[in-house]
Amino acid sequence: MSDHQRIHPVDLEAQTKPTAPLVPRGSSRSDKHEPLAYPPFRQYPPSQLRPPKRRRGNCCCRCICWSICTIILLIILIAATLAALYFIFDPKLPKYSVDRFQITEFQVDSNNVANATFDVTVTAENPNKGIGIYYEDGSKLSVLYSDYNLAQGTLPVFYQGHKNTTVLTVVMKGGAQIGGQVMNSFQQQQQTGSIPLDFKGDVPVRVKLGGWKLWKVTSRVRCNLIVDSLTVSDQIKIKSSSCKFSLKL
């Protein structure tokens, strides 16, 4: 082997030994004291920045809850007010009755057309201490026999005070064509002295509570009468009378 071909040993551990980092950890400068170059900050356009979504469901739930609470509170206040007024005024329904029934005209022609004129005496009683009643224009009164409207009339406009009883005489006139079978029944009842009649009244009224005049309602009166005759005379006997009262808002 020639002198020019010599084998030199190589230290493998020295070649694979890791070298020290160029920049120590936690340092922003290199060993040469030069500042490090960081990558530029990427700025996104405004269109890519989405704002956080608003929770519309929560807002709707809150509005619904507030609305329900407000309605419940109003109902409680109204109920409390009505209860207080009830205990203060102690309202009672008025009472009505038909006390006198006089016929000044009643004729039936050959065509079974009945023309009648009645003088009806009606008693209205207001039993309340602190409540007045205004009877207003637009009332309708009628006398019927077997659903045939024999006469119509109206109540006068007046005010009925506290603890007051008012007696009114109303003139009622009209006519109706009565069927043949109904006329035969009427003639038989005329002979037996027991004729059923219906008295109906629809009267618009306003209630006065102390100094407050409330809204208008319709007072409905329904009376079932039985009289002994339907002939022109000074006195017609009312054999029975039953009246019912209701309010129509």
UniProtKB/TrEMBL annotation:
Positions of the UniProt region annotated as Disordered: 1-55
GO CC field: plasma membrane
The keyword Transmembrane helix is assigned to this record: yes
Keyword Transmembrane helix listed: yes
Descriptive protein name: Late embryogenesis abundant protein LEA-2 subgroup domain-containing protein
Keywords: Membrane, Transmembrane, Transmembrane helix
Highest taxon of the lineage: Eukaryota
TM region(s), chain numbering: 63-89
Subcellular locations according to the entry: Membrane
Topology in the lipid bilayer: Single-pass membrane protein
Domain (Late embryogenesis abundant protein LEA-2 subgroup) ranges: 121-223
